[in-house]
Amino acid sequence: LGSLSFTGDSGGTEMPEALTWGAKAVQKALDECRKIPGYAEEGSPNPLVVFFSDGANTGGDVGPNAQTLKTVRFAGGNVDVIAVGIGMAQQDFPVMERIASRPELAVNIDPAELPGFIADVGATAVRGETPDKLIEKY
Predict the structure, then answer these.
(1) How many CA atoms does the CB half-sphere of 73 hold within 13 Å?
(2) Which of 113, 97, 2 lies closest to 51, judged by CA?
(3) How far is CA 86 from CA 24, 26, 58, 107, in A?
(4) In this predicted structure, what is the pLDDT of residue 1?
(5) Are 8 and 56 in contact (CB under 8 A)?
(6) Which of 16, 81, 87, 124 is least enclosed by beta carbons within 10 angstroms?
(7) Is 42 left (phi over 0), alpha (psi -120 to 50) or beta?
(8) % of the chain surpassing 70 pLDDT
(9) Across-strand partners of 81?
(10) β-pairing, 80-86 with 106-109?
(11) CA–CA separation, 132 and 96 (whole Å)
(12) What's the confidence (pLDDT) of residue 8?
């Protein structure tokens, strides 16, 4: 991406639908990787999904859709899902913990930290590190 533009209009967050879209996107990406000659799925880093929200779910139960995302078939391991609340109210944090692969991969960051967080996600992925090191920083 050449640039990112974050805008909001208080339209609500339909988390279950976003999680379903994420599962489809990861599956499609894996299908494309599997077409690459010499692709070694078993030795590849886990797919990484970063779910951003203010934490206020205006949709239904996130549990089944989050589980679908976290269980996309991958020979090398599991899909790692980091759930990132941006300026989230503390009472909304449990929903982010349910979305994350593990509760410790849910984090609430200040909006001012977002550019640095995105850069750190990219660096983590390039180095092939687990998301645990990334989350420790935040």
Answers:
(1) 2
(2) 97
(3) 24, 23, 16, 9
(4) 40
(5) no
(6) 87
(7) alpha
(8) 91
(9) 49
(10) parallel
(11) 16
(12) 56
| pLDDT score recorded for residue 33 | 94
DSSP 7: -
* Listed residue (69, 51, 29) closest to 107, CA to CA: 51
- 19-21-27 Cα angle (round to 5): 105
Contacts of 125 (CB under 8 A, 6+ apart): 45, 48
DSSP reduced 3-state for 121: helix
Q: How confident is the model at residue 36 (pLDDT cuts 50, 70, 90)?
A: very high
- Cβ neighbourhood burial of 68 (10 Å; 0-12, 13-18, 19+): middle
pTM recorded for the entire structure: 0.84
Instruction: List the structure tokens of 67.
Output: 């589980």
Residue type, 60: G
User: Cα(59)–Cα(84) distance, rounded to whole angstroms?
Assistant: 17
- Tokens 């390039």, residue? 126
Give 116-120 contacts, CB < 8 A, sequence gap 24+.
117/84, 118/4
3-state secondary structure of 112: helix
CA nearest neighbour of 18 among 45, 56, 74: 56
